[in-house]
Amino acid sequence: MSTRPLLFILIAGIFYWNGCASQEPAGSSDAAGTAPSQGRSELLFRVQVSDAGLQTQWLAEGNELTDFVEARLPGELHDPPLRFGPIEQADAKRDTPVDAAVSDFSSFKADEAQWILENFSPEQRPDLESMLNNPEMRRRNKEIFDSTDYLYVAGEASYESYALVFVQAEPGETIRPLAFKKSSDGEAWLRTNELSDDGIFDIVFSALSNGEVRIAE
Prior knowledge:
Elements: E1 8-9, E2 41-48, H1 55-60, E3 68-84, H2 97-110, H3 113-118, H4 125-132, H5 135-146, E4 151-159, E5 162-168, E6 176-182, E7 189-192, H6 199-210, E8 212-215
Antiparallel strand pairs: 2-3, 2-8, 3-4, 4-5, 5-6, 6-7
Helix pairs in contact: 2-5
């Protein structure tokens, strides 16, 4: 699943995305960091095996291509989605997963290598640094962000110790989940690609683009 286009960098299966800063939900907003949503509840993610990324895994477990796999996670959906424009590095925070997503987007928009690296977990930085040191990959990545003005956050969910933020370039476009985990000191949320081969994350990823996501009954 690491070869899918994530909405943030996607270059050689690393990471990619789109848009963020002054929070301006595509509708109305409350205080900074909050906006109208459907509230924290249990979310259902459901997708047909034929549309899942880890088809081999699901078939090996006895499923057919026409079967459905699903996952339930605590989370919330934002309707309308939250909208963010790029922020300055001095204003960046990682106190919440959405704050971290804003910082992440803004660092790529600014094409600031050190800031980009600081937004990721230490384990991810060597691969990311290789991308940043590749002129062609760096150029392609910059083109993506030059054409993206905002980051839209359509929802959030919790999975074990991870936080998932559902992002899109524009309302109505494909939604992709970004995964974050706490730093070793517990002070910040950092982006990670650790869930690339995880079955539950695969269901979430695939359901957001090709399946069904709704509040569970």
